[in-house]
Amino acid sequence: MALKIVKGSIDRMFDKNLQDLVRGIRNHKEDEAKYISTCIDEIKQELKQDNIAVKANAVCKLTYLQMLGYDVSWAAFNIVEVMSSSKFTYKRIGYLAASQCFHEGTDVIMLTTNQIRKDLSSPNQYDTGVALTGLSCFVTPDLARDLANDIMTLMSHTKPYIRKKAVLIMYKVFLKYPESLRPAFPRLKEKLEDPDPGVQSAAVNVICELARRNPKNYLSLAPLFFKLMTSSTNNWVLIKIIKLFGALTPLEPRLGKKLIEPLTNLIHSTSAMSLLYECVNTVIAVLISLSSGMPNHSASIQLCVQKLRILIEDSDQNLKYLGLLAMSKILKTHPKSVQSHKDLILQCLDDKDESIRLRALDLLYGMVSKKNLMEIVKKLMLHVDKAEGTTYRDELLTKIIDICSQSNFQYITNFEWYISILVELTRLEGTRHGHLIASQMLDVAIRVKAIRGFAVAQMATLLDNAHLLTGNTQRNGICEVLYAAAWICGEFSEHLEDPMQTLEAMLRPKVATLPGHIQAVYVQNAAKLFATVLRKHDGETESQAAQETSQLLIDRLPLFVQSANLEVQERASCILQLVKYIQKLQQKNVEVAEEVTALFAGELNPVAPKAQKKVPIPEGLDLDAWINEPPSGSESEDEKPKAVFAKEEPKHSRSRHTEVDEKELARRREVRKQEQASNPFYIKASPSSQKVYDAPGVEHIPVVQIDLSVPLKVPGMPMSDQYLKLEEERRQKEKAERKKKEKKKKREKRGKERKADSGPESEEDITPAHQVDIVTEEMPENALPSDDDDKDPNDPHKALDIDLDKPLADSDKLPVRTHRPEVLKSPAEDRDGESVPQETKKKSGKEKKKDKEKDRKRSKEEKKKKKKPKEVEEELLESQPEEAVQSEETKEAAAPPTSTSAEASDLDFWLSSAPVPPAAQEVTAPSSSAAAVDTSSAAAPESEPDEPKDTEPEDTKSSKHKKKKQKKEKEEKEKKKKKRHHHHHQHHGDAGGEDSVQNGTVEEEEPLPPMSNYSLLAENSYIKMVYDIQGNHQDESKVVVSVIFENKSDSFLKAMEFNVLDSLNSKLQRPEGAGAHDSLTVPFQLPPGVSNEARFVFSVQSIVMPQKLKGTLTFIVKSDESSTHEKLDFKLHFTCTSYLITTPCYSDAYAKLLESGDLKGSSLRLEGINMPFHHLLARICFHHHFSVVERIDSCASMYSRSIQGHHVCLLVKTSDQTVSIDAKCDEPSLLGNVLDEIKQTFSKC
Amino acid sequence: PIKHAEHFSNHLSNIQNTRTEDTEQQIIRETFHLVSKRDENICNFLEGGLLIGGSDNKLIYRHYATLYFVFCVDSSESELGILDLIQVLVETLDKCFENVCELDLIFHVDKVHNILAEMVMGGMVLETNMSEIITQVEAQGKMEKSEAGITGAPARAVSAVKNMNLPEMPKNINIGDISIKVPNLPSFK
């Protein structure tokens, strides 16, 4: 037995491993399929073994075969087996196989949930890592729902390696399980400031990806990202953030203004092309969003264009390509700045790289003007001749047509030229775009009346030379143009010089080889031509010509009557009979011309593509309402069997008109007639179709006769060139004429003229060669302007359009396995659970909308509320003893509400670079959310007296509810609202002085007195400086001092220079090359009353002691009459607190830290503190950068970290106006100083 | 995000969106067809066709000797950034395989996958710092070795024997000098 096992395992050593498989496949090139099928048989044998090593080896080979395209889904269960091996080696093989082979339909995925959960919580970080990586590839909605909470916990793992993977995978989880976004978002946001750059980068990555799809929900994060952008040095992160800003600026132009400067700085400073390119891109996006031109922005555009030109001129094709790509974005808003680089773009058309040529073509599209259109198109026509591959040539062709036809032929001044371009294009062999040229010809001929004569002549020539075009009909798409030619010649036959000749050309036997739909047009238009010929010879008695024509038709049409194409056959036989009849009449000398012409009377007008959709529904018309009352029950039963045959919905049944009396019918007819009269879609008896829709402002364009002595077509020579010459001459002439005229004219008139023409510079000098009435497309009267851009309903990101600023409700939590301790339970939930369960249960989908509205109201009320912080504070003092137990998770659940409402105003504050109002300041501080937590929990009990009153009537109501219909529920709701309102008034009476609190809103109040982290630096009669010092986890030896300069005087302050006397320990960072004592120029000037913020970076070595640095600000005060040089001394106080950074810490990690014994203790007692405990905590959080780890009654643990990684832990207890703080830190002198500073903070108040 | 990454001649493909094997193969064939016929010295971007998911997507590739590294990304990724990422990938492979050559990648597809997994996860860039990637890859390699322990030794011996004289051993693989030269591009980080 034992021997058997040994023998087995030795045999197994000779199993093929992956390398053997690969080698084998390479050696069996001729019979690969056969070899692989024997290998798969071997693998199947191996999978039957009990030995996990053998199985893993087999699965490893399967993964490779899957990559080669073999189906291995049959081994899915074996893959799961290997995944659940305890050995990392095999586990990794299993997960790799799963990530390659599993997809949403794989049923064994259900079995993996517990295994994955086990691996996620494995003590070995690589087990966790491998599970996360695998999961990212095959996560399903079920897995996402079941594992979201586990993954969220991993986001705070101690190992950055796990944290970054957990953060990244959250994106996939959100996509599959959108409900997880709101509960997980606060922690995700937290990770933006993770000390590990990798984790931070992952968080940026995820949020950027989310924000790209639904930018408006992420606007409130802009300040945070802005901070990251100005502090980060990781190019990957920077690129992501800058790309994100590009998506945000269209929503908030103020953001753009704020971005321009740092972005331009980056453009100037960075050496990484990728970063430069993204900066340029975002600057462009900003400039687009700031459509109202600010004068100094032309500099930014110039900078961008200039940088892009460098990219395009680079020999690196990649840069060239991207440069062109970005250029096309600028083009949309600032065409002039791009147009000056026309030479460069045209040069790119010669590039050997097709991608680049195509990009250049795109650019040309936007660069044309009336002035240069002909020239550009001429160049393009040259390229068409040179182009080798048909694909590129076809691309050129479409681009030429796009360029010319854009915005209603806006740039075409000479339509004869355009027609000849189109005619030239028909000579392209083998193009697929015949129909495109044809539709252009039709479009121009129909819409530009003045050109019809010319067009018809050209088309007649085309028809005459049709044999040139139809050389090889089958492959040739170009014969489509004959369709247009025939129609134009027929429709506008009155312009034909010799209709007889054209008619003859259209009835040649060779026509029968054309595609059916073209023949049909030929036949129909032959009839029109026939009518024209008849009319021409009208009045001539016994006209030979007219009779000859009839005979021609009678001779030739039978060919078409035999056509296999139904359409052709039908038309031909119809017309043939008609002509025969006419011939009879002719022989009797009856005048027929007029009657025949009447067959084709009338004119077609173009209708806009969306016209039908845009017809507004007239007021009072309800399309869903019954026209007649629906029949009674018995009748409708009779009706039903009919519906089986007629699929029409009963709503539309028209069978009931009979019951209406005659009078009513007459009245309706009248109404209908009137309606039709004003409806453009009804063809009326009156020739309203003659109406011409002139393009605005065309009437006064002078008409110049073109010299037609030039032959219209020189065979074999491109003739559009001649128009170019002619056009130039014409413009010259015109200019000269205008000059003459201008001398006579007064200036006012000229001004008017300019207004009428909106083209780019000197465009107004160019006038169209002949009267163009570009017939605009018809639109129904009072059409709705709405342009519905349809979004893809299948986009998974649609589900992620979730308002993240909305406070978290108790329904927003991740599902937790029940046998686990309920981590997310919070006192707030408990309370809600007891008092208002029926309300949450009742909420149906429809009502959610209402909730949103409520929220909006709520936030409004909050704002009101903020104005009366004192009153609230009083309230809070009363309620304080009832405080509930608060766990760490409450913080997560409750923090977002306050911080978000704060963020909205925060964003506004941040975006307006106005002086810092203290109230807003309070919310900008990073610790505010922690502070807010306590207040919210403290505020909660206050709402309790309110609730019982409220819930009681609701209880009884809800039972009634169920019986009532949905319709009535609405009313009910409103009633309830009123009731509640009533209650609230009662409450108002009881509590007194509180008038805007509504049930449920109180939790989000911010009753803390306004706090500011900015402290006074120095002040004199001209200027006031306040400052704040902030550390940064990324760099342990740097702090940033933000100084707000406020101009208090009536004069202009400029040339401000900031200097500090460095100490050995702390040094101001000066630009390279500057001396150690040089001062820094403040990068702005201050008009009277304005304030602005500048940041200065200091390097510090030791952070255990506070330090003061002396410094001076010098500046020039400039008033109307004089200017003086002033100076202000100050002392910068680097407290130890300023080296601390608010760092969240979870209670388990905190406990471990305290147990480790590396920390040294110290303590502090504060007497006579007369403030609520949560205020006290909030102050410590805010002023000293701590975060609350856990809080139980009047005892709280707090945590912070220094920029150099020292842990600082506090245990704060309070009883009877005495606060004791026990503190631990790995650096005793730092701790001592921090405690001193805390003491000082409280002695002030 | 990155939709898929692949490199040819050894056919490693890592397709992040789940599709059937057939479309996967079709994508790879199409991509190979598109990329391989492009000349040297033209730009390394290819705009999206229908197969790779429409116009928002781009193929971004780099060409080293006989190898093509192709990434398919959407507009949220920076084009030049991805080129740098490919460079990082190749440099990392070079370090992990000690002077990487084509055959390394062909015979150790799993290892290449594991390295890629440290850089890109679920289509999102996970890590771009080469030393961090190498540290993690090596740490996992070490774990694997320690797990193999004694039982691993005979297996290694066997594979050495196999390499020596088994008939499958290719007789004339002409490796030439296809070892990848990693050009010194301006470093990105």
Please, could you describe this protein's structure?
Chain B: This is Adaptor related protein complex 3 subunit sigma 1. Chain B: It is found in: Cytoplasmic vesicle membrane; Golgi apparatus. Chain B: Keywords: Cytoplasmic vesicle, Golgi apparatus, Membrane, Protein transport, Transport. Chain B: It is a peripheral membrane protein. Chain B: Belongs to the adaptor complexes small subunit family. The complex is a heterodimer of chains A (1245) and B (189). By secondary structure, chain A is an alpha+beta fold. Chain A contains 49 helices and 15 strands. In chain A, helix 6 packs parallel to helix 8 (125-138) and helix 30 runs parallel beside helix 32. Chain A is extended, with a radius of gyration of 41 Å. Chain B has helices at 21-36, 79-96, 102-107, 109-119, 130-165, and strands spanning 2-7, 12-15, 45-47, 58-64, 67-73, 120-121, 124-125. The longest helix of chain B is centred in the C-terminal third of the chain and has 36 residues, at 130-165. In chain B, strand 1 and strand 2 form a beta hairpin. Chain B is an alpha+beta fold and 189 residues long. Chain B contains 5 helices and 7 strands. Chain B has a 5-stranded antiparallel beta sheet with strand order 2-1-5-4-3, with helices on both faces. Residues 8-13, 15-19 and 164-189 of chain B have low confidence and may be disordered. Classes of the chains: A alpha+beta (1245), B alpha+beta (189). Chains A and B meet through helix 2, helix 4, helix 6, helix 8 and helix 10 of A and strand 2, helix 1, strand 3, helix 2 and helix 4 of B.
